[in-house]
Design brief:
The protein is built from two helices and seven strands, in the order ββββαββαβ. By secondary structure, the chain is mainly beta. The chain has two domains: 36 residues; 91 residues, Pdz3 Domain (Roll). The C terminus is likely disordered.
């Protein structure tokens, strides 16, 4: 029995579960917990020097791609590469621009060509996924 109904989630994703034990296996009454999570993008700009070894990333996506047709996504960061050493980018980040050239709407091959042609000081505009908890509610069952 719930004392009050839960309002609908406004967020993109919700996770609901029952908890009967917590804190060092001590028993407690059942508690209904509802977490609403929304994913947002944090868009930011960075500069880095691309050496002879390259940026050290693998990407997926682009127009016509089955995996990620709406963007160019970093899938892997090579250990020891420029981006790995810098530490700010992560797998899952979306590349939006390279040296003021938009990657949005380009094919995978076009994006790879722009990345390969970039030399010296490279400007990257990136969208990173950020999860923000928007609602937490606990009600005794």
């Amino acid at each position: 029995k719930r004392k009050a109904p839960l309002p609908p989630c406004d967020a993109a994703e919700s996770v609901s579960y029952f908890c009967s034990c917590f804190l060092h296996n001590s028993l407690c009454s059942n508690i209904y917990i509802r977490l609403c999570v929304i994913n947002t993008n944090h868009i930011w700009k960075m500069h880095m020097v691309k050496g002879q070894e390259g940026l050290g990333i693998k990407i997926t996506g682009g127009r016509g791609s089955k995996r990620s047709p709406h963007g160019i996504i970093i899938t892997h960061i090579e250990e020891g590469g420029a981006i790995y050493r810098d530490g700010r980018l992560h797998a899952g980040d979306e590349l939006l621009m390279i040296n003021n050239q938009s990657l949005v709407g380009l094919t995978h091959q076009e994006a790879v060509a722009i990345l390969r042609s970039a030399a010296g000081l490279v400007q990257l505009v990136v969208a990173s996924r950020v999860s923000a908890q928007t609602q937490t509610q606990t009600l005794e069952a």
